[in-house]
Amino acid sequence: MSVDRQKALELHRRARGKVKTYPTINIRNEDDLAIAYAQGSIYPALEIQEDHDRIYEYTGRGNRLAIISDGTAVLGMGNIGPHAALPVMEGKSLLFKNFGDISAIPMCIETHKTDEIIEFARHIAPSFGAIDIEDISSPATFDIVKALQSIEIPVFSDDQQGTAAVVLAALTNALTVVGKKTTEIKVVIQGAGAAGIAVADILLYVGVPNVIVLNSKGILGANNPFMNHIQQDLSKRTNPENLRGGLEEAIKGSDVYVGLSSRGTLPPSFIKTMNKSSIIFALSMPTPEITCEEAEAAGASIIAMGLTTAAYNAMPNLYIYPGLVRGLLDVRATGLNKNILIAAAQAVASEVDKRRMNERHLLPDLFSDETAPRVAEAVAQAAITEGLARKPVPPKKIYDDTWQRLFGGYLLRM
Q1: Which CATH architecture has domain 161-314?
Q2: Enzyme catalytic residues
Q3: Contacts 24+ apart (CB under 8 A), 248-253
Q4: Per-residue pLDDT of the chain (414 residues; tens, 9 = 90+)
Q5: Which residue in 117, 90, 118 sits closest to 104, CA to CA?
Q6: How far is Cα 73 from Cα 286, in angstroms, rounded to an integer?
Q7: Residue 248 belongs to what H/E stretch?
Q8: Contact of 317 with 218, CB cutoff 8 Å
Q9: Where does residue 239 fall: left (phi above 0), alpha (psi -120 to 50 degrees), or beta otherwise?
C-alpha cells in the first residue's frame, strides 16, 4: 500500500513533531513549585549523590531511551543527514511510546565521526536507561555499539539486533510450516550492512550450518577484495563451501533467502534454483527485492516482506523493539546479548497459534495486545538468567506491568 505524499506532509505539518514531553505532576501554587523544583530537588539529588542507583527511584531515567543517529543510513533513503533524519527518528520514538510506553528521545547529531558519536553517547548516558544507535552506516554502527558495551546501560542498534530477532522469529515458524530444521538448512543473505551481518551472526549462533552473505560485490570470502573489517571477520565464519561469484551462484540449492539490500535485486529465475519449499524474506524497504506475486509465481513456498502493509507476511522490527526495551528497562539491565535476543524472538514466534500457522501467517497481528508484554517478560527473565539485571523480578510481573501500562489504564492513573 502506497502512502499519499500530500496527506503525509499535512500530518507532519499539523503535528509539528510526533512526540512531546509532558508533566507527570501538577504545579498549582508556591508550595508545589518549591517541592518540585530547586528546593525540593535538593533531597533526591543528595540521595543519588550517595548512591547512583537511586537515580532510578527518584527520576525518569528508568523509562527513558536515547535514539542517536547521524542520518547516514536512514531506512530506504541512505545518507540524508541528521536534519532530514529527524522525522524518521521522531516516528521511531512514537512507536516506542505507543507500543512500549517508553519515553524515547530522538537525538540527530551533526557528526559522522565514530569517536565523536561514541563520546556523545557516553556523555549523555546518565540521563537514559538505554541507548539505541539508529540508522548509522556500517561498519561504524558496529564499532559504536561495541565501544559502548562498557557503560552501565544497554546499548544496541535496532538495525542490527531488532532485525536479527524478527528474522529469527519468522524463520522459526516458517521452518515449522515447511518441515525443515535449523541445523539442516542453507541460508543466503543478500546485504552485508548492519542488518545483514547481525542476521548472519544470530543464525550462526543458533546452529544454521551453511550461511552465505553477499555485499554489493559478491559473496563474502577470500575471493572478495571489497570487504570492510566487519565483513572480513564474518567471511571466516560463513560460506563453508567456499563459493565464488554473486547471488546466482550463492542461491543455488539454498532453502532460505533473506534480502536486506535494495529493490529488484532478486530475479524470479533465481528462486527456481532453490531447494523445494523455499523461503523468501524480501525485507528491503520501501521497495523489496522482489514482489510477492513474482516470488510466488517462481515457486517460493513462504514469502515475507519488511513492510507493515505487506500482502503476505509482514516482518517489521516493530514486533521486537518495544517489548525488548521495555523488558531491559524494567529489570535495569546492564547489557544485551544473543540469548536475550533469542528469548525475544521465541516470544514473538510463540504468539502464533500453531493450529492457524501457515504460509501466509507466520507472525502475530502487529496490534496484538499480547506481543509487547510477552516479549518484555521473556527479555526480562532472560536478562535475569544471564546475570545482566540489577533489579530481578518474579516471573510474570513484567508481563502484567507492561499489559497494564499499554492496555489497562495505567497511564490514566499516573
Answers
A1: 3-Layer(aba) Sandwich (3.40)
A2: 37, 92
A3: 248/273, 249/219, 250/188, 250/212, 250/214, 250/219, 251/188, 253/186
A4: 568 899 999 999 999 999 888 888 999 999 999 999 989 999 999 999 999 999 999 999 999 999 999 999 998 788 999 999 999 999 999 999 999 999 999 999 999 999 999 999 999 999 999 999 999 999 999 999 999 999 999 999 999 999 999 999 999 999 999 999 999 999 999 999 999 999 999 999 999 999 999 999 999 999 999 999 999 999 999 999 999 999 999 999 999 999 999 888 999 999 999 999 999 999 998 889 999 999 999 999 999 998 777 777 999 999 999 999 999 999 999 999 999 999 999 999 999 998 999 999 999 999 999 999 999 999 999 999 999 999 999 999 999 999 999 998 654 444
A5: 90
A6: 13
A7: helix 247-251
A8: no
A9: left
CB atoms within 10 A of CB 99: 21
- Tell me whether the CATH fold assigned to 15-156 matches the one assigned to 161-314: yes
Return all residues near 221 (Cβ < 8 A) that are at least 6 apart. 235, 238, 239, 242, 243, 244
Residue partners of 371: CB distance under 8 A and separation at least 6: 319, 323, 347, 348, 351, 364
End-to-end CA, the chain: 38
* DSSP, res 386: T
- The helix (H) or strand (E) run that includes residue 67 is strand 64-69
What is the DSSP track for 88-141? HHHHHHHHHHHHH--EEEEEE-S---HHHHHHHHHHHGGG-SEEEE-S--TTHH
Helices 397-407 & 81-100 angle (0-180, nearest 10) = 110
Cβ atoms of 314 and 305 closer than 8 Å: yes
* 183, 209 Cβ separation under 8 angstroms: yes
For the domain with range 15-156, which CATH number is right: 3.40.50.150, 3.30.43.10, 3.40.50.10380, 3.90.180.10? 3.40.50.10380
Show me where the domains of the chain are located. 15-156, 161-314, 320-413
> Which residue has 544471564 as its cell numbers?
386
Q: Which helix (H) or strand (E) holds 189?
A: strand 186-190
Residue 327 grid cell: 523488558
Instruction: Say which DSSP state 159 is in.
Output: I
